[in-house]
From TrEMBL:
Name this polypeptide is given: DUF4115 domain-containing protein
Stored Pfam families: HTH_25, RodZ_C
UniProt superkingdom: Bacteria
Region (Disordered): 139-164
Length: 277
């Protein structure tokens, strides 16, 4: 796959006009072509007008051009003339996705810190107050003789002395370190949606609530992981360079591909199905 940062040969003049002339010679309307290729009408119009800026990333433009040229039986090499310099992909705003388990852990940690601070203040005060209360009355101790220390009558007749009490923070029970949310997510990674990229690609992910989770150009060697039930729709450019697994099983994307672009939906149980335009 050609990187979107490399400069390709100059745009072939008249490729849009050749598409329009070939379509008219074949007796097809724009709506007929859009139906056969399963593309939107605005995409067909933009291809014939050579308005590449309306079509997004270069990888999409070349794939759509090849599909149109193949339909009209024109040389697919005309699609290689699209220059990256004439294409301005939309600016993407990165979004940070926080898993629900991470949010729950943050709240739990906040409450734990509050409890610890309260204990550090309240326990020494309670111990010091109790020592004064205990000094105001004699304490009778019943001994079962299990430790070998038997009190003699002479010792019992002595007046009770106050026992010094030292408030120590070291007596507080140690709390086990909280398990990071990332460990929990790694343990469940096999049950979610995983995408591994062997080539540069463009993705668009829609969450189960209908909001856009991510839209970005992804470089080769990277991967994306999503928890089960958090993704409802996915769109992949250069789909042949992406390996998708759901529930730990690698999925066949050929049934979702059109012009090397895969569109599919993800059900709550992780099943993949073709998505409409």
């Amino acid at each position: 796959m050609s990187s979107s940062n490399q400069t390709m040969p100059a745009t072939s003049p008249g490729v849009g006009e050749r598409l329009r002339d070939a379509r008219m010679e074949a007796g097809l309307t724009v709506a007929d072509v859009a139906t056969r290729l399963r593309m939107q009408l605005r995409v067909i119009d933009a291809l014939e007008a050579e308005d590449w800026a309306r079509l997004g990333a270069p990888v999409f433009i070349r794939g759509q051009l090849r599909s149109y040229l193949r339909l009209l039986k024109l040389p697919e090499s005309l699609a290689d003339g699209v220059s990256d310099a004439n294409v301005r992909p939309p600016e993407l705003t990165p979004r940070t996705y926080t898993p629900p388990m991470q949010r729950m852990l943050d709240k739990a940690m906040g409450r734990a810190v509050y409890v610890v601070i309260t204990a550090l203040i309240a326990v020494p005060v309670w111990v010091a107050t109790r020592s004064h209360v205990d000094n105001s009355r004699p304490v009778e101790t019943a001994s079962l003789g299990l430790d070998g220390n038997i009190q003699t009558p002479a010792e019992a007749s002595r007046p009770a002395r106050p026992t010094p009490v030292t408030a120590s923070l070291g007596a507080l029970p140690k709390r086990a370190p909280a398990v990071p949310a990332a460990t929990e997510f790694d343990a469940q990674a096999g049950a979610g949606l995983v995408m591994r990229f062997s080539g540069d690609s463009w993705i668009e992910v829609i969450g189960s609530d209908g909001a856009q989770v991510e839209q970005a150009l992804v470089q080769a060697g990277q991967e994306r992981r999503f928890e089960a039930g958090t993704v409802s729709r996915v769109k992949l450019g250069n789909a042949t360079a992406v390996e998708v697994s759901s529930g730990g099983d690698v999925q066949d994307l050929s049934r979702f591909q059109r012009a090397n672009v895969a569109r599919f939906t993800v059900s709550s149980d992780g099943a993949l199905a073709p998505a409409s335009e």
